[in-house]
Amino acid sequence: xxxxxxxxxxxxxxxxxxxxxxxxxxxxxxxxxxxxxxxxxxxxxxxxxxxxxxxxxxxxxxxxxxxxxxxxxxxxxxxxxxxxxxxxxxxxxxxxxxxxxxxxxxxxxxxxxxxxxxxxxxxxxxxxxxxxxxxxxxxxxxxxxxxxxxxxxxxxxxxxxxxxxxxxxxxxxxxxxxxxxxxxxxxxxxxxxxxxxxxxxxxxxxxxxxxxxxxxxxxxxxxxxxxxxxxxxxxxxxxxxxxxxxxxxxxxxxxxxxxxxxxxxxxxxxxxxxxxxxxxxxxxxxxxxxxxxxxxxxxxxxxxxxxxxxxxxxxxxxxxxxxxxxxxxxxxxxxxxxxxxxxxxxxxxxxxxxxx
Length: 356
Known about the structure:
The protein is an alpha/beta fold. It has two domains: 127 residues, no CATH class; 130 residues, no CATH class. 43% of the residues lie in helices and 23% in strands. The strands form four sheets. It has a six-stranded mixed sheet with strand order 1-5-6-7-4-8. A hairpin with an 8-residue loop joins strand 13 and strand 14. The longest helix is centred in the middle third of the chain and has 38 residues. The model has no long low-confidence stretch (mean pLDDT 96).
């Protein structure tokens, strides 16, 4: 990716935190990684934001990885042209060096802590840390309930979908838009473009703006037809030698792509539903592949499920907001114990190493 983009590499899902951090870097391809350690409020996100700013000033493209628990914070920074990344290696996306020194460098920001001051806040730190964990567990329970209803609606809708018709449409689309095979299989990377966050379902619209001149919107309230179509288009694109960014659904991360970006064509195909709306260049309606009369037989069941799913997702976001509040209180306890001048000097050193 040459554009400056932002994605999530982890998301809060019904099974807990779903991590894609294994996609951050490839040691076999010459990548290097800085793995940051340290507690809340110790400057990890600020360090990465500062390096990103310096990359921008130097005209070096980068990808920022947002934190699903606090989209204003960064979990990682990838600089593909340099084959270098910086990542928060603490929970829930714990990273440990696989090739210490040769590939990864651990940066321990706790070296700049005043431990005596932190011990004075021991009781509050323990209490808030436990409250934060409890809030995240509560959010997961709401997501599990929402996923159960969503899965039931998707199953009902899929029974009414003409998958053969979708296959034929995808084949014609690929022949028209993807061109002749390029002699090799395309490369796939996996991301989250949307996530359930303390602000609700968050969509990284700046990324689609940066990557796409053309955005096709698949209007599909149940995600059944779109899952089949995007799965087909992903397969055709890779087979044609096109690189793809496959973006997973936070409620169904194992169900294939919910959104698909093809950077070489500056094309995106996104799924629209009640929780994520898009303004695209054209719309594909799932109803064209669906037996609507058969689906109407389940109207009352679907109406109940859609309303309840919405309420459950709102409760999940509320629990995550509570978790963020406790996290902010923890940061307020840690910040006075951090030597930020030393962190700033270290940030300048890392930026210099990356950009020279």
